[in-house]
Amino acid sequence: MSADTYDANDPALESWxxxxxxxxxxxxxxxxxFGRFRREDDAAWCIGVAIGDQVLDLRKAGLIDxxxxxxxxRLKPQTRQALRQAISEGLRHGSPHRTKFEAALVPQxxxxxxxxxxxxxxxxFYVGIHHATAIGKQFRPDNPxxxxxxxxxxxxxxxxxxxxxxxxxxxxxxxxxxxPDAAEPAVGPSARLDIELELGIVxxxxxxxxxxxxxxxxxxxxxxxxxxxxxSARDIQGWEYQPxxxxxxxxxxxxxxxxxxxxxxxxxxxxxxxxxxxxPRPLPYLDSADNAARGAFDIQLEVVLQTARMxxxxxxxxxxxxxxxxxxxxxTIAQLVAHHTVNGCALQAGDLFGSGTLSGPRPDQAGSxxxxxxxxxxxxxxxxxxxxxxxxxxxxIILRGYCERPGFRRIGFGECKGTVLSAPG
Length: 425
What we know:
By secondary structure, the protein is α+β, with helices and mostly antiparallel strands. It has eleven helices and 26 strands. It has two domains: about 100 residues, Fumarylacetoacetase, N-terminal domain (SH3 type barrels, Roll), CATH 2.30.30.230; about 300 residues, Fumarylacetoacetate hydrolase, domain 2 (Alpha-Beta Complex), CATH 3.90.850. The longest helix has 15 residues.
């Protein structure tokens, strides 16, 4: 649609949904993230948009004619913007569609929120340069970054079948480990269970096999961004990852937040891609003037740890880390898409990219316990006196993300929450 008629990001807009006008809320009318929900008395998934503390049922509001969200996320950018504009117009003050939309609202507290789309494939990248440097120093103090890091967006293929919705508990994984002084490995529950603070990038429009996506068109293939926690068993990982990379240390569970915040909603929070002086310029297929000028996104990120004892006492948990996507990531979303397809790889609607751990430059901005505790050598002391090197059974991790900029409405991502259960058996 034309720029003259598209005003869904106008910071002056307010909604007749009162909770959407809370300046501290995640879901004002300028956000309108997409996801899936189901009512307590109905097993069918519906497509919804978060607005304040409510969910708008898009089909009931007459905005779509089916419940296939993977079909919706394939929409061309102009059609997607037209849908977002129609949702915005129906929810804003003075809308003639208020009565119809009001009948399609349901409180978020009364629904189950799920994985936001059918995830077809999952690739985990390693874009957090401060994380890569901190981890590298633990193993290679004199050469923390491998020679390819500043040339190629590094990633590996993960497991889509164990990506679970926010709020889902999971069992501590069992696998092979070998103690430094042991002659042979042993099988048992992971003792070094960790978190990874990440963003999830949801692919919307596919490409044909053998046809790379050019960097200037890469964002047209991205529908939205979520929060993502790629739980990691560091002791299993340390034994198995050579020579082919992570396997059972990663594929037991990954948690995704329920709402896909569209790139359209993130438009006011773009930033230039900033790299240290002297770093190599990206190869041509990863480089464009537009990507350099506005390819990064200013997204604030937080990690909260709530122990079982805290939960029992009504304690909301401690914030153990804060970082920022634009400061943490060496590669942009567009560069990840261009690199993933440069060899002709075909992406599908619903494919998910994990960003990799998004740690900031300071030690207290680390996005994993591996960094925060220096590999388990320096325990965190929590506000109630408990100490942690790695996660214990009953611990809950909550990721939060939001964007703020003077002159614009704050938008958020909701929560990405998971709880550790004891190992099975």
